[in-house]
Amino acid sequence: MSSETALVVRAIRTQQAGGVPLYAFFMYGSDVARVADISRVHRDEGDLKGFQRREVRDHVKGIVDFLDSGPVLFPNAIILALSPEVEFTPARGPRPSGLCDVGAAGTLSLPLRPEGDRSAWIVDGQQRSLALAKARDPGIPVPVVGFVSAELQTHREQFILVNKVRPLPPRLINELLPEVEALLPRDLAANRLPSELVNLLNRDPKSPFHRLIKRASDGPGAPGVVTDTALMAAIKRNMRPPLGALSPYRRNGDGLDAQGLISALMLYWGAVRDTFPEAWGRDPEQSRLMHSAGLRAMGDLMDPIMLRAEGATSPEQDVRRSLARIKPHCFWTEGVWPDLGWAWNEVQSTSQNITKLADHLIRLDRELARPAR
Q1: What is the pLDDT, as a whole number, of residue 80?
Q2: Do 124 and 180 share a domain, yes or no?
Q3: What is residue 208's predicted lDDT score, i.e. its pLDDT?
Q4: pLDDT for 264
Q5: Are 24 and 103 in contact (CB under 8 A)?
Q6: Do 211 and 253 have their domain in common?
Q7: What are phi and psi of 143, to 5 degrees?
Q8: CA–CA separation, 83 vs 105, rounded Å?
Q9: Does one domain contain both 45 and 19?
Q10: Is 191 exposed, middle or buried (0-12, 13-18, 19+ CB in 10 A)?
């Protein structure tokens, strides 16, 4: 095949499954879409065709943003099913002593044909391949592993086997983020600071959350009762400009006031602990304040209370007065929320319940904070 009709790459050839050719090679990210088709799952007159899901645009955009953020390390291999038409030419030359003779080096020729008639199919990595085709730098080298098979059934089998592997738990990823200094995709980068703040709140003996937060690294018998993801979600909302209580401590272009962030969190949640001592530190089954719904709703309440307290002579006293006003109207461990019609233990971690509870608390705070006429 000529260079005009084929893409030629250096490759290593081996065999698996009793003789199925298997290749490992590198190619430019933009070239993946030139040699491989995406076999979308669909039905044709009742028959199931293809196997790949549809493009997930937000996922692809997130990868593109990461690739365009600067020089990045992107070693994730794309898996291709290769047509038997591909041609491998072994390299010639002396064999080094002590060689681990697992594969043969050479060149692999991949035919270049129009979409829908290409010589390879993407088994794993379709979102990455779409992102690589859209990235500003078309010359990012990516690793590829390809096995030779023209059988759709084999493609589907490998697709299922590759994708059945359980992904890393989000809580484990979140806990690892503060230890990672490299550039991260936008969704992960947004979790790094809240995760580190959760670490600080859990470790500091002066923190109201000291040793109360459950993290993925905790062993059996750990004393935590608060889910780290719930507290992280609350902190992320508090950081949203312009009305997030923590947004003033994120100085655009001037760095981060880390001490201001942790001090504000300590002040507010310390006041919450002292206002509701009967509900603090208990298992979520016994106290909905420690439940993810209660934490996130009280996190939303932090914004108006803390922003109003900024103009007070003593911000801490103002926060405590605000919480004391709403205390008689809260039912974390017993009773019924009258305006919501929920028993205390009926509050659930659904977006609807969290939003309704947060709106109720914020309305109570606003009404009770008005001066008496």
Answers
A1: 92
A2: no
A3: 97
A4: 96
A5: yes
A6: yes
A7: -75, 145
A8: 20
A9: yes
A10: buried
Angstrom distance (rounded) from CA 360 to CA 345: 17
Residues 69 and 199 grouped into a single domain: no
Give dist(CA 32, CA 53) in Å, integer. Answer: 18
Residues of the chain under the 50 pLDDT cut: 2, 253
Question: What's the pTM value of the predicted model, to 2 decimals?
Answer: 0.69
Domain boundary among 163, 195, 213: 163
Which residues constitute the domain of residue 108? 6-163
Taking the CA atoms of residue 90, residue 22, residue 124 and residue 118 in that order, the dihedral angle to the nearest 10 degrees is: 60
Q: If you write DSSP's letter for every residue of 134-166 in order, what string do you get? A: HSS-TT-EEEEEEEE---HHHHHHHHHHHHTSP
Report the distance separating Cα 263 and Cα 179, nearest Å.
22
pLDDT of 251 reads 66
Residue 285 maps to a domain: yes
Say if residues 187 and 177 touch (Cβ distance below 8 Å): no
Q: What is the pLDDT of residues 304-322, one digit of tens each?
A: 999 999 989 999 999 999 9
Q: Are residues 237 and 204 in the same domain?
A: yes
Cβ(34)–Cβ(28) below 8 Å? no
Q: Whole-angstrom Cα distance, residue 306 to residue 239? A: 12
Main-chain phi, psi angles of 266, to 5 degrees:
-65, -45
Distances 198 to 150, 201, 241, 244 between C-alpha atoms, Å? 51, 5, 20, 17
The count of domains in the chain is 2
Do 302 and 234 lie in a common domain?
yes
Q: Residue 299: CA atoms inside 13 Å, Cβ hemisphere, count?
A: 23
148 and 226 inside one domain:
no
What is the widest separation between alpha-carbon atoms in the chain? 96
Boundary (domain end) residue, out of 132, 163, 194:
163
